[in-house]
Amino acid sequence: MLQRVSKMGFSKELTYSARRDLEHCSQTGFFLTVIVMQLFTLVTHRTSRESLLQHGMRNYALTGSLLCSLILALMYCYIPILNIVLHTCPLKFIWCIIALPFGVFMVAYDETRNFIIRHSSENSWIARETY
Fold it and tell me: What is the pTM of this model?
């Protein structure tokens, strides 16, 4: 049986199975990125005016659901039987933290927005447009 071979940059040749493995790794990385960004979005959008540091993580059900969703996402990536069923693959640690800078930027942006809203009048432009 002939193996299908695809040319990649710098004259590297990938077989069909190698391309499928690469596709599964990239889909798994995208899946983890979406989960991490949703977790950051949930944390930043809990309060509209109060700072995350002032409000804290008092909602234990929310904290539990954050941890549960992160554990489930990691299980999807690192349990071998789920890798076969869901077409995922184990990722290197550096690939798992790709979304963290974007999440940190989102938290910093939201904290800055909340600070400006708290220190401006009720009917200011930024309060009307971003609240």
Answer: 0.77
